[in-house]
Amino acid sequence: MEDTEAARLFREEAIKGIASGMSAKRKVRDRVERESNKRKMKKVGTCTIWCSNLTYAWRHFLSKIAELRYIFVLWRSHLKKIEGFFGTGILSYFIFLKTLFLLNVPLFVLSFCFITIPQLVYQPSPTVNNASFTGIELLTGAGWFENTELYYGYYTNTTIVMNPPLQYNMQLAYLCAGGGYFLLCLIILVHRMSKSFRTNYVEASFVKSQFVAKIFTCWDFGITEKEAAKLRHKSVYTEIVELLAETHKQAQELTGGQRCCRVLTRLCTWLLYFAMLGGSCYLVFFIAERLNQDIIKLISDNLAAGSATTALTLLVMPLCISAINFLLPFAFSILGSLEKYKYPRHELYISIFRTILLKWAILGVLLWFWFNKISRSSSDLACWETYVGQEIYRLVLVDFVFLLLTTFISEFIRNLFTQCCCKNLGKPEFDIARNVLDLIYAQGLCWLGAFFSPLLPVICMFKLFVFFYVKRISVVMNCRASSKAWRAAQATTIFLSILLLTFFIALAAVGYSIFAIKPSEDCGPFRGLANSYQSVLNLLETWQGQANLSWIKTVVDIIGSGYCRAFVLCILCLLVYYYAKVSASHKILVERLKHQISEEGKDKQFLLKMLQDASPKKTGSQNPDRKSASPQRPTSSGATPANQTGSPAKSPDQGGKDAFAMAMAARQQHEAVGVPPKDY
Predict the structure, then answer these.
(1) Count of CB atoms situated within 10 Å of the CB of 524
(2) For 26, what's the count of Cα atoms within 13 Å in the CB-facing half-sphere?
(3) Annotated region Disordered: where (predicted)?
(4) DSSP per residue over 299-347, as a string?
(5) What is the sign, positive or negative, of the torsion defined by CA atoms of 367, 371, 372, 375?
């Protein structure tokens, strides 16, 4: 009795051919398997047992590490409580805030370890900073902070030599730390967005009924505490309500006049929106242009006065921008309610688009002003990079203060007013879209300012950390879930896409300042160069003189040539075209397979019907007067019934084959005519 695959298949076929019942075949199969297993059983060696125990211990260790890691997940209990009481919508905001907080950690680590620590070792700022600290610098970012490691202008351009063999090039460290973070951030954002898109759009499109998945698979059977079970129950209930709100929509039949009125209303709202957008951008540019000379004079005087008037002058533009970002989204929400979109998600996406376009436009105006006005006024300004870093510092700080004030006024004060005076007003709803876009705007400022202020990421991390607890307390105590339920998963993908676009805007701005703008002459690690990238070219020139490193310069020249860029662009275009065509062909193939499966189901129903009509029937059992046209079973003596005209009796298998042939012939006949067959 061999143990090969061929022998096993031969035994199975032999057992199937035994002329006995199923119970006897099962007994024979079990006995054969026992005999075969006896041959396979061998004595296990000590080394094998030791390896098995070691593998088991390692897996047990990994499971314990996973449990410990789950315990130390950041804000786990808070997120679980928010999900239980408010559902996936508000939870998505806090998960997004957590994502941004963790995203800033590598930025701070890279900047602090590779830029700030070497500068502290080389020349700490307290040894050369003689300015007095009055406290007002915390609001303005100028004065005492100007000659510290907070800003670009303080960092040296020399190569730090600790020991004769060890040298640290500050210029390359400054570029590589920023470039490494932007590359890491790009990889993380693209991965998260692609994963979210695949989960929430691609894979979700194949799910026919999401209610079945929610009802039968969403419960966590690991819950043992009563409070946790209540939280999970509330979470499941809220998710099902969101699905019902998305699925059960009532179609509204509009007349021609109503359609025209709605189109005109939306046209007017969009014109009003663009008017507000243009007015906001012009106001920001006007304030920046008008206060430019005053701010430059105050910075050049190192904020000696330290008065409130001086600080207010520096804070005018950040206050104006924060006020615009606070007030106009409410106006956009009113415009969205007037447009009366059919689906709640459409109103949400339009509001998101309008708000983020406003923030992008304001950032674009500021970047244009900084790079085209400030960077060219080198005679009036000693270090324009530090000026830009201070402006972004003030924007971050004032934005944080505004977010705290809006949380206090729009949520706490309104809830207090509702409880004391007007109970019919109800608790305020938590505006997910507006709050998430505020986070995206703050993160965009962090990306923009990281190059001009290397320690700005730690300020943004502190801001997000404090804001999480402020929002968490405010949501639990003062807010209620939104009355318009919407799909949080798809909205998360939209938010990640907007965050990625904001990242590209910041990357383009920082790249433009590195490659196209001349650095300041008297400050920063790139002083005296044509542009910041010139430091890399100088290093390559030094390598070219060395025989073992000259090939690096050749490779960089080839990669940076226009022919190589054109070749890479063509390859990328071809890849995009290829994958687009493959995706389209796969989509067509899926549709054809779905149609084929549907047609096969109809074929089976049609064939079963024809088989039932063609199968032999017992005469006189149910309808004695009915004569069957189908072949009848032969009698025990082998004679045919009297009403059979001598035709030979057919077996059930033969009758099934005839039925199949009849069904296919009928199908072909009906397809030729173009009319679907009966019962099809």
Answers:
(1) 26
(2) 3
(3) 614-680
(4) HHTTT-S--HHHHHHHHHHHHHHHHHHHHHHHHHHHHHHHH--SSHHHH
(5) positive
pLDDT of 673 > 60? The answer is no
User: Other CB atoms closer than 10 Å to residue 357's CB: what's the count?
Assistant: 14
| Contact predicate 212/153, CB 8 Å | no
CA 412, CA 416: separation in Å to the nearest integer? 6
CB contact at 8 A, 519 and 385: yes
Long-range contacts, 312-318 (Cβ 8 Å, 24+):
314/140, 314/142, 314/394, 315/139, 315/140, 315/394, 315/398, 316/287, 316/291, 317/284, 317/287, 317/288, 317/291, 317/391, 317/394, 318/391, 318/394, 318/395, 318/397, 318/398, 318/399
Q: Which residue has the higher pLDDT, 335 or 311?
A: 335
At 545 the three-state DSSP class reads coil
Closest by CA to 212, choosing from 247, 162, 261, is 247
Q: What's the rounded mean pLDDT across residues 602-609?
A: 80
Report helix, strand or coil for 151: coil
d(CA 488, CA 477): 22
Mean per-residue pLDDT, 301-321: 71
Give the ranges where 545-636 is alpha helix by DSSP (H): 550-560, 562-614
3-state class (DSSP) for residue 159: strand
- Mean pLDDT across the stretch 628-644? 41
Each residue's pLDDT tens digit, 252-274: 566 777 788 888 888 999 999 99
Average pLDDT on 65-87 reads 77
Dist. CA 144–CA 137, nearest whole Å: 7
Cα 386 from Cα 453, distance rounded (Å): 8
Amino acid identity, position 664: M
Question: In the structure encoding, which two tokens stand for residue 118, read together?
Answer: 């070497």
3-state secondary structure of 162: strand
- Side chain identity, residue 201: Y
Contacting residues for 80 by C-beta, under 8 A, at least 6 apart: 228, 231
Asked if 473 and 163 touch (Cβ cutoff 8 Å), the reply is: no
Which of 443, 485, 433, 496 lies closest to 198 in space, CA to CA? 496
Element of type H or E holding 114:
none
Task: Please identify which residue in the block is written with the tokens 């998710």.
Answer: 239
pTM of the model: 0.73
Tell me the per-residue pLDDT of 162-219, one tens digit each, with 9 for 90 and over. Answer: 766 677 888 888 888 888 889 999 999 988 888 877 776 665 555 555 667 677 766 7
Q: Is 229 in a helix, a strand, or coil?
A: helix
Count of other CB atoms within 10 angstroms of residue 355: 23
The secondary structure of 50-85 as a DSSP string is HHHHHHHHHHHHHHHHHHHHHHT-TTHHHHHHHHHH
pLDDT digits (tens, 9 = 90+) for 10-56: 777 777 777 677 777 777 788 877 776 666 555 556 787 788 888 88
CA dihedral 486, 487, 488, 490 (to 10 degrees): -130
- Structure-block tokens of residue 117: 């620590």
Place of tokens 């690690």: 525
| Chain-centroid distance, C-alpha 207 | 20
Specify whether the backbone of 646 is left (phi greater than 0), alpha (psi in -120 to 50) or beta: left
CA atoms within 13 A on the CB side of 283: 17
Q: What is the pLDDT of residue 628?
A: 42
| Gap between the Cα atoms of 424 and 352, Å rounded | 29
Q: Give every CB contact of residue 125 below 8 A, 6+ residues apart in sequence.
A: 147, 148, 149, 154
Cβ burial, residue 380 (10 Å; 0-12/13-18/19+): middle
